[in-house]
Design goal:
The structure is a single chain. The protein folds into 2 domains: 175 residues, Periplasmic binding protein-like II (D-Maltodextrin-Binding Protein, domain 2, 3-Layer(aba) Sandwich), CATH 3.40.190; 190 residues, Periplasmic binding protein-like II (D-Maltodextrin-Binding Protein, domain 2), CATH 3.40.190.10. Helix content is 39%, strand content 13%. The chain contains 16 helices and 12 strands. Strand 4 and strand 5 form a beta hairpin. The protein is globular. The termini are close together.
């Protein structure tokens, strides 16, 4: 069975988690004295000439930073971590598993997809050293996102907060536009910007290779959570209410009022029809070029702006969280990756253990552009004030947080029919029609 609603009903962690040691020395490896400067990696052992193949969705600049994050670990352990990034990961991971050619480690961006691959029997339960790190550094909810039927299979990797709206502080100051504090104010500001003829309010892109459509799901999830609250959100993603429930139709139409309006989009790219094909990675760049006023995308988007872009309240770009129906801290959605293993070789376990540690989280976040929900992460290591605030939000027990809904749904829906439905919808199909199609596809 897919993971289901981990944010509501916590699944008991059993087996490898319950009996896990808390000493990271449980990670396998040699016992030779570490080389100078490698003391922090002594417990992982040395594996000269070993190679661990990893596979995920992380590409381009983010891939370069990912590979940089484990360089010292590689030097000290002798393990060569070979990473392969793919825009077709969601489809190809199943092909590779079925073909008997899985990677040693896969970075699953959707708990629902992880759960569906676990059902094939090919993913191994997390080893004790990984389970110990998960218990020490990750909240119960985050552990549960990587848990299937009571067994931990994937410890979290990075994280993001979704629902940020990116804008240019200088452009807004010049035009007298103020950050909205409610969804109604978002609508009013959008209309004001459009009427000003200075630029179009929004630039949007759903393009992402075989994963095209996923940026649209983030819009819908944000509006479902903000308009109808976490209880309805949880019922929707667990299919306790139908996918085309009137409340979901309302949320989607509210989004459509913004991004299907030809007067409001697609700043810098053309008309509404360009949304379906515009690559999401560059979709927000017109904000820095004075061609659109706002771009809706997650905290990780900081790392996707052109090199040299300053992210600060008085910089080239800044962002605010999409507000709720009332002023105040809105509930937030977010996402992340989970590291699943197809091999239990000692060098693979060593890498898997390191990636679940606070040491790796601080290493990667210090390089810039991303955050993590690892409680051992020092927020000061985040690369901008915005990301420091995002880390604090994730670590704040008072935050109402829900994992990305499509990522928790069964893979056939969350990374399948929901994505394609959003492409059809933004290309002109009616809300009720596309939501009905997704509803009929629920396994």
């Amino acid at each position: 069975m897919p993971l289901g609603v981990a944010g509501v009903a916590a699944l008991a962690l059993t087996g490898c988690v319950g009996d896990a040691p808390t000493d990271p020395s449980a990670a396998p490896g040699g016992t030779d004295a570490p080389a100078a400067g490698c003391e922090a990696y002594a417990d992982y052992g040395t594996f000269e000439g070993a190679q661990v193949d990893t596979y995920g969705t992380i590409l381009d600049v983010e891939q370069e930073r990912l590979e940089e994050s484990w360089l010292e670990f590689e030097d000290c352990t002798g393990i060569d971590i070979v990473y392969e990034g793919s825009g077709e990961f969601e489809a190809q991971i199943n092909v590779r598993v079925q073909g008997g050619n899985p990677p040693d480690l896969a970075f699953f961006p959707q708990p629902g997809l992880l759960a569906s691959v676990v059902e094939t029997g090919s993913v191994l339960p997390a080893p004790e050293s990984v389970a110990a790190n998960a218990q020490e550094f990750w909240s119960e909810d985050w552990q549960n996102y990587g848990t299937v039927d009571g067994t931990l299979y994937g410890a979290p990797l990075m994280a993001s907060i979704k629902g940020y709206v990116w804008y240019s502080p200088a452009v807004w100051a010049e035009n007298g536009w103020e950050v909205p504090t409610t969804l109604d104010e978002v609508d009013a500001l959008t209309a004001t910007i459009a009427e000003s003829d200075v630029m179009q309010p929004w630039c949007v892109g759903f393009g992402s290779g075989e994963a095209t459509g996923w940026p649209g799901t983030d819009w819908i999830e944000d509006y479902v959570l903000r308009l109808h609250g976490p209880e309805v959100y949880d019922q929707w993603i667990s299919h306790e209410i139908p996918f085309d429930d009137p409340m979901i139709v309302e949320a989607m139409d509210r989004v459509g009022d913004l991004i299907k309006n030809p007067d409001y989009v697609n700043g810098g790219f053309g008309d509404v029809t360009t949304i379906a094909t515009q690559d999401f990675g560059q979709a927000g760049w017109p904000v820095t070029e004075g061609e659109c006023a706002m771009h809706h995308q997650a905290s990780f988007y900081e790392g996707l702006f052109p090199e040299g872009t300053t992210v600060a309240e008085d910089g080239d770009v800044w962002a605010f969280l999409l507000p709720g129906t009332e002023a105040g801290a809105p509930p937030v959605t977010g996402g992340g990756e989970f590291v699943g293993a197809f091999s239990d070789d000692e060098e693979v376990v060593a890498v898997q253990t390191y990636l679940s540690s606070a040491e790796w989280a601080n290493s990667r976040v210090s390089i810039g552009g991303v955050i993590s929900a690892n409680t051992g992460l020092d927020p000061a290591n985040a690369s901008s004030p915005l990301l420091q605030t995002a880390v604090e939000t994730l670590q704040d027990p008072e935050t109402t947080f829900r994992f990305d809904g499509s990522d928790l749904m069964p893979g056939a829906v969350g990374s399948g029919t929901f994505w394609t439905a959003l492409v059809d919808w933004v290309s002109g199909e009616e809300t009720a029609s596309v939501l009905g199609q997704v509803e009929s596809s629920w396994p």
